[in-house]
Amino acid sequence: MSNSNAIDWKSIFSLSSILYTVFGVFSALVALQGFMIPNHFLDGGITGISILMEEVFHIPFSISLIIFNLPFLYLGYRKIGKTFSVNALFAVLLLAALMTFITFPQVTSDKVLIAVFGGLFIGLGIGLVIRGGGVIDGLEIIAHYTNKKIGFSTSEIIMSFNSLLFIGAAFEFGIETAMYSILVYYTAMKTSDYVVDGFEEFTALTIISRECEEVKSVIVNDFGKAITVYKGERGYLPSSFKVKHDCDIVMTIVTRIEIHRIKETIKVIDPNAFFYVQRIKEVKGGVGKHNNMEH
Asked: What are the boundaries of the signal sequence (predicted)?
C-alpha cells in the first residue's frame, strides 16, 4: 500500500464521507448501548476487547476504544495514508464521544434478538464508516502488518485474537453468552461485507465453448453484457494429451441474479460448454453497473 503524502481535506469534508461516518457511528452506538453492553455481549476486534475491559476492569468503553485503536491509527498513517488515518481518527473519537455523552435505552433482553440485531447494527455501522473512508475497529490493519512480520495470514491472526477474546468472555460471562457473542460477530461481519461490497455481488463468468461466436452474440446482443475475449487452447485430456485446439475464452461480469439465466441459455447453444465462476469484491472502470459496461 502506498503512503499518501498529503491530507485530502476535500475528501474528508465531502458530504458523502461525513454522512457515511456519522450514520455509521450512530448505528454502532445503537448496537452497543441498545443491545450489546447492557447484556454483556461482545463483538470481535477492538470493539469486543473494549467491552470486555469495561466489564472486567471497569475501564470506560470510550477510553479503551481510543487506546486500543492508537496502534491502528499509527499503522494506518504509515501504511495507508494520512487521509485515511484522519478519517479513522474522526470516526473513533466521534464514537467515543457519543458513548460518553449520549445514553440510548436498552431495546431488549432477549438473547437471540440481541445477537441478531446487535450484530446487524454494529456491522452496519462498521460498513458505513468504511464507506466513508475510515474505520472504528483497527484489528484488520494490525493483522495485515503482523502478517508481514511473523508469517501468519490475516484470517489466522484475526481468528486467533477473537478466539482469545471469546474465551475471555466465556470465563467472565459464561459459555452461553460467549456463544451468542460469536453469533453477534458473525452477523456483524456479514452485514459489514454487504454494506462495503454491495448487495449485487458482481461475479466473473468465464465460458469455453465450441460455439464461441454464438455464445459471444447471445451475451452481448441478448443480455446486453460486454465481454472480454482471451485467446487460448483447449484439449490436453489425459487420454489424448497431444490433441489441442485453439479457442476463445469468453469472460463477462454479471450479478448473481443474471448468472443462472445466462448459463441456461448457453447450455442450449452448447450442452458441453465449460463454465467457471469467480466472485469479485469490486468492479470499477467503464460503466460497471450498466448493460453497456466496457472491459
From this structure: none
Model pLDDT for residues 120-133, shown as the tens digit of each residue: 999 999 989 988 88
Query: In this structure, are 69 and 99 located in the same domain?
Result: yes
In a domain, 216, yes or no: yes
Domain membership of residue 26 as a residue range: 9-197
User: Could you identify the residue written with the cell 449520549?
Assistant: 102
User: Distance between CA 182 and CA 165 in Å, rounded?
Assistant: 10
What residues pair up with 275 in beta bridges, in sequence order?
A: 207
Same domain as 168, residue 80: yes
Segment 134-145, tens digit of pLDDT: 889 887 676 555
CA-CA distance, 162 to 164, in Å (whole number)?
5
- The total number of residues shown for the chain amounts to 295
Question: pTM of this prediction?
Answer: 0.72
Residue type, 23: F
Write the single-letter amino acid at 22: V
Alpha carbon separation from 101 to 36, 61, 87, 96, 105 (Å, rounded)? 18, 12, 21, 9, 13
Distances (CA, A) of 222 to 153, 230, 249, 283: 43, 21, 19, 22
Answer for the pair 116, 187: CB distance below 8 angstroms, yes or no. Answer: yes
Same domain, yes or no, for 54 and 105?
yes
- Strands of the sheet containing 203-208, edge to edge, are 228-237, 240-254, 203-208, 274-279
Q: Cell 466465556 maps to which residue?
A: 170
- In a domain? residue 294: no
Condensed to tens digits (0 to 9), the pLDDT of residues 94-107 reads 999 999 999 999 99
